[in-house]
Amino acid sequence: MDAGYQTKVLICGDCKEEFVFTIAAQEYFAEKGYNEDPKLCKSCYMQRKRDKKGLGRDSTVTMDGVTTDQLYLPNE
Ligand SMILES: [Zn+2]
């Protein structure tokens, strides 16, 4: 895809709320080779991640230095 990302508004597949897929997150996705848009909003994603991996309740999770405020990931 060409450079020149635009912020996208997506609908969460879980809570059906709108959420923003930021340019920073899109660039991160592209770097990682993900072709699909995220399917979950940040809170649902984080919830699932917590459920799956049992991360500490209070920990601030980062992905390769990108804070979760900027980033959502799809189910893998
Ligand atoms: Zn959601």
Q: What does this molecule look like?
A:
This protein is α+β, with helices and mostly antiparallel strands. The protein has one domain (8-67). Helices cover 29% and strands 16% of the residues. It contains 2 helices and 4 strands; from the N terminus they run E-E-H-H-E-E. It has a two-stranded antiparallel ribbon with strand order 1-2. The longest helix has 12 residues, at 42-53. The model is unreliable at 55-59 and 61-67 (pLDDT under 50). Zinc ion (ZN) binds at residues 12, 14-15, 17, 40-41, 43-44.
Blueprint (SSEs and pairs):
Blueprint: E1 8-11, E2 18-21, H1 23-32, H2 42-53, E3 62-63, E4 66-67
Antiparallel strand pairs: 1-2, 3-4
The structure holds zinc ion.
Which features does this protein show?
76 residues, alpha+beta, globular, binds zinc ion
Question: What does the main sheet amount to?
Answer: 2 strands, antiparallel
Low-confidence stretches: 55-59, 61-67
Taking all Cα atoms into account, the compactness measure Rg is: 12 Å
Percentage of residues in helical conformation: 25-40%
Q: What is the arithmetic mean of pLDDT?
A: 76
Proportion of beta-strand residues: 15-25%
Strand order of the largest sheet: 1-2
How many separate structural domains? 1
Structure classification: alpha+beta
Q: Tell me the distance between the termini.
A: 21 Å
